[in-house]
Amino acid sequence: MITREDFWAKSNGQSVEQHTKELLNLFDDFCNKYGDKFDDKTKLLIILASKYHDLGKINSSFQYYIHKQINVNVDKFKKGLCHYSNIKSKDIPHGILSGAFISKKKLLAQGLDLEDYKVVVSSVINQHIRSLKNEDGDDTIIEIVNTDLALMAEKYGLNYCNAIPIIKHNFFKRQTEFNFEEQLWLKYATVKGMLNKLDYAASAGEQQIEISPENAYALSKQAMLNKGFSLRPCQQYMEDKGEKNIIMTASTGMGKTEAAMIWARTDKTF
Question: What is the DSSP string of 212-267?
Answer without folding.
Answer: PPP-HHHHHHHHHHHTT----HHHHHHHHTTTS-------TTS-HHHHHHHHHTTT
